[in-house]
Amino acid sequence: MKLRNCHIVFVFLLLMVTGCSSNSRLPDLRETYSYKDSKPFGTYVAKEILGICFPDNYVQTFREPIAMATAPLADTSALYFCVTKNLYVDSYDVSSLLNFVYSGNTAFISAANFDTVLLNKLYCSVSNDPGFFFNDPEQFSTASVRLIEGINASPEKFSYFYFPFGSSFSTINDIYSRIVGYNENEKANCIVFFWGKGKLFLHTDPRAFSNYFLLTRNNYRYMQQLVQVTEAAPQHIYWDDYYNKHNYPVNRKSGSGLEEIFKYPALKAAFWLLLSLLLLYILFGMKRRQRIVRKIKPNENSSVAFTETVARLYLQKHDNRNIAEKMINYFNDFIRSNYNLHVNPGDTEFINTLSRKSGVPEQQVETLYRTIGDAIESKSLNDYQLLSLNNQIEQFYKTRK
Q: How many domains does the chain have?
């Protein structure tokens, strides 16, 4: 792996032109560590150097937590690079990071404040210089860092004029960890943790990867030499752009349910699937539905009920003659409507014609009309005569064709 010096010079000149264009203003000294930021404490130069160190590989950007970023990956020789002021993670992020390393990948993380969840898992601890105050400009000095022999080609130190590098590892795991670099106080500020087939580098001074530090003299060689010991030929290169924008601790006691669900890809997918199905159900349910049509009772035949009521009234009064007259009138109307005959009971031709059309024997028709004539001529009818008239009329209905 060779560093292309012409590319480095081009980046230096670009940032110098950017800085000269605003000489009338003080530089912005906020420690953003954003790869898009060309200000003193952005990491634009660091990302460019990382890409130049591996010219045949493309540096991909992650904007998700470690757990979500590494979960879908199946790499076995990738490089994950993260520069941030604060690294706040939870136990699931730490497990995902260690699984990523265990599979044979390399992770390099530089942070001024490491979450104790990660440090406790690695049996390490970080301390800061108690006499160091960022708000005091009098703390400005020529601060430097160096790498151990075997990594650094010469015993040179890499320095700049600003606040000193005050963070260092106070305790490390001697079984799995080795020291890689020191700060100006000869305290370990960079270690490598060997886990499975991979390596995890932890660095306590992210300002050593800022534009300001790397553009000072030959300080870019500091990052170049560190990158050389990470991975000779990485399968993929990932630059983290998430933690430098999330500089707040993880609330492990009162995290929302959605945050817990979104940590796990399977639960996250199930949540969105359930939400989509619920939305579809609501949309289909909003379609206009036909109201239930009440069952309407059919209209009753009031004429039949009226007739039954009137007949019942006649029976109660025992007016047999009036009942007989109505029976005869209804029967004669039936003959006129169905056989188109003019009713003439005393006419032999009428009897013959009615018998022929109805199919009722002539003798039966003649007897029926004789009974009808007797009922008409009689001033009063007893129950037997009324019943006999009714039976003969009913017999006619049953016999006719």
A: 2
Nearest-CA neighbor of 213 among 33, 344, 347, 365? 33
216-259 confidence digits (pLDDT tens): 999 999 999 999 999 888 989 999 999 998 866 655 554 556 76
The H or E element containing residue 395 is helix 383-399
pLDDT per residue as tens digits for the range 74-106: 888 999 999 999 999 988 899 999 999 999 999
Residue 191, domain extent: 5-247
User: Which among 111, 113, 166 is positioned nearest to 139, based on CA atoms?
Assistant: 166
Distance CA 11, CA 22 (A): 18
- pLDDT digit string, tens, across residues 303-319: 556 556 666 666 666 77
Of 205, 228, 247, which marks where a domain is finished? 247
**243/306 same-domain check:** no
Q: How far is CA 386 from CA 17, 211, 244, 369, in A?
A: 131, 127, 113, 14
Report whether 109 contacts 33 (CB < 8 A): no
**How far is CA 126 from its chain centroid?**
40
CA distances from 400 to 331, 354, 397 (A): 13, 10, 6
**For residues 372 and 389, is the Cβ–Cβ distance under 8 A?**
yes
The pair of three-digit structure tokens given for residue 281, joined into one six-digit string: 């159900």
The answer on 309 and 239 residing in a single domain is no
Give Dmax over CA atoms of the chain in angstroms. 152
Report d(CA 60, CA 298) in Å as an integer. Answer: 78
**Do 317 and 237 fall into the same domain?**
no
Q: What is the pLDDT of residues 365-381, one digit of tens each?
A: 888 888 888 888 887 77
Q: Give CA angle at 213 (207, 214), nearest 5°.
A: 115
Q: Of 200, 218, 247, which marks where a domain is finished? A: 247
Helix residue spans in 89-204 (DSSP H): 91-102, 116-122
